Amino acid sequence: MKKQHIVVFVGVCIIVSIVIWLIINFYKAYSPKPQQLQGQIQAREYKVSSKVAGRIESILVKRGDFVKKGDLIFTIESPELQAKLTQAQAGYEAAKALSQEAHKGARIETILSAKDMYNSAKAMRELTENTYKRIDDLYNKGVASLQKRDEAYTAYQNAKYNESTAYQQYKIALDGATQETKEAAKQKEIAAAGQLSEVEAYIQDIQAYAPADGEVSNVLLAEGELSPTGFPVVMLVDTKDVWLRVAVSEEYLKDFQKNSEFSAFIPALQKEIRFKVQYVSVMGDFATWRATSGSKGYDLRSFEIQAVPLQNDVEFAVGMSAIITLPSQTH
Fold it and tell me: pTM for the full model?
């Protein structure tokens, strides 16, 4: 009899244990679970490039190097640019010389030559004038013919015109170039100086410097290879300017309002880090819609969250994962 009681008791215990186990498992299965989101650490990236196309002469860094702002990263060899610099310098010097000549006026030899031409024309005019007066007097007395008188008058008139022309040439030599000519020459000098400055600016760009402190994450070209204009030869990552990027469905957006704070676990560091939401933006339409249950009757969009760490002493690396655990929610 006692043995039967023991058997019944053991059976009841087993049944009760099974029921309790089933209740616990059903509760775990149907109770709300914490929602986990995964994000990634990103950092400010700089593309070091040059405005000048040419062949890579030297690369002074390699992957993993830390550089300071202003450090020389690479240099480019461009014989064509050197030739353009020579042309620009010659063009500037020529324009400068012409401008100086226009402002300085004619050479003293040119002025003296014009003066002598004027004096010669003046003497010829005086001679032909006197000759005409004498022949005209003889004509009036009936000694000279009308033909002689007309010839003398024509020679006198030609001499007057020659004298006037020589005088104007002399004045031009004395006055130098006109104000318009001087201004045109000056503007040509300024234009040539601008072209020279442009080429000199390109010459300076054959040496590329680090735009900020950072770590060299990639070197895309090797020495001797051809670099197109603006091609990113070296990539830098500023490991001090990092943020967490995570895609969040809009049903969880209330937990990530701008300037709000949250914690994220960084598996690579085995640390829990506090972050502050800095930027919230809706993501593109494609592949960002998620259907809800049929009873809700609407779809959910995804939003991009960018959050900055509140600790400055953490050594982050680009690509580190971050796990964010949200409070349990009933849907």
Answer: 0.55
